[in-house]
């Protein structure tokens, strides 16, 4: 902050495009606490410490800000899935490694939903096709979206012989539907009262079911 001649403080931050990022970060915090409904332009500008009209230089309306936050949250889902895979112990057997990486996609997805329910809800609040979801903001550190990470894991199952090639088409939609359904039940549905150990076991059983099904 710099002082002006009349003694008032003058903001000298948020130059060169930083305001857009600051608003997204502020809105992410709102989403973390209250889900997509909490993402409001005026609240985001207040948290970022700027005048309400400043947001319109970067976002046409509340929906535009919410979409940016949704995509950023989706990128965080991807990074959690990547971290789950990266934490796997080394496996010399390529078949065991492919299976573990596939399961880590599901466990990472469920872990994010339970640890960050507000951001999880926000990530999937704004609908969009898969082409749009492949934007940089929706990707993890590898440049892959959650959907692409799942697809890669399924391709590895085919390459190692765990999944028949003729059963590969569309398998990601079946797997994602099952895991996402459980995630929603755990954070917003009748399973939200489960003890964390029970929730973990439910996730393991669902992934077992998916493996057997595909």
From TrEMBL:
Pfam families reported in the protein's UniProt record: TetR_C_33 (PF13305), TetR_N (PF00440)
Domain HTH tetR-type: 17-77
Keyword hit for DNA-binding: yes
DNA-binding region, residue intervals: 40-59
Keyword terms of this UniProt record: DNA-binding, Transcription, Transcription regulation
Annotated PROSITE patterns: HTH_TETR_2
Coiled coil spans: none
Annotated protein name in UniProt: TetR/AcrR family transcriptional regulator
Organism taxonomic ancestry: Bacteria, Bacillati, Actinomycetota, Actinomycetes, Kitasatosporales
């Amino acid at each position: 902050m710099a002082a002006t001649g009349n003694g008032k403080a003058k903001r000298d931050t948020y130059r060169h495009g930083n305001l857009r990022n600051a608003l997204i970060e502020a809105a992410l915090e709102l989403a973390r606490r209250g889900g997509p409904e909490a993402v409001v332009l005026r609240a985001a500008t207040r948290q970022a410490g700027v005048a309400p009209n400043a947001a319109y230089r970067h976002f046409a309306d509340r929906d535009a800000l919410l979409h940016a936050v949704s995509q950023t949250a989706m990128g965080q889902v991807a990074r959690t899935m990547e971290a789950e895979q990266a934490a796997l112990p080394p496996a010399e057997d390529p078949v065991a490694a492919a299976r573990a990486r596939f399961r880590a996609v599901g466990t990472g997805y469920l872990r994010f939903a339970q640890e960050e329910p507000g951001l999880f809800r926000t990530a999937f609040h704004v609908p969009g096709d898969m082409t749009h979801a492949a934007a940089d903001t929706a990707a993890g550190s590898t440049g892959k979206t959650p959907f692409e990470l799942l697809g890669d894991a399924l391709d590895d199952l085919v390459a190692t012989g765990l999944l028949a090639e003729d059963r590969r088409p569309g398998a990601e939609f079946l797997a994602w539907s099952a895991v996402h359904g459980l995630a929603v039940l755990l954070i917003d549905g009748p399973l939200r009262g489960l003890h964390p150990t029970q929730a973990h076991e439910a996730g393991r059983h669902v992934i077992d079911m998916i493996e057997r099904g595909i």
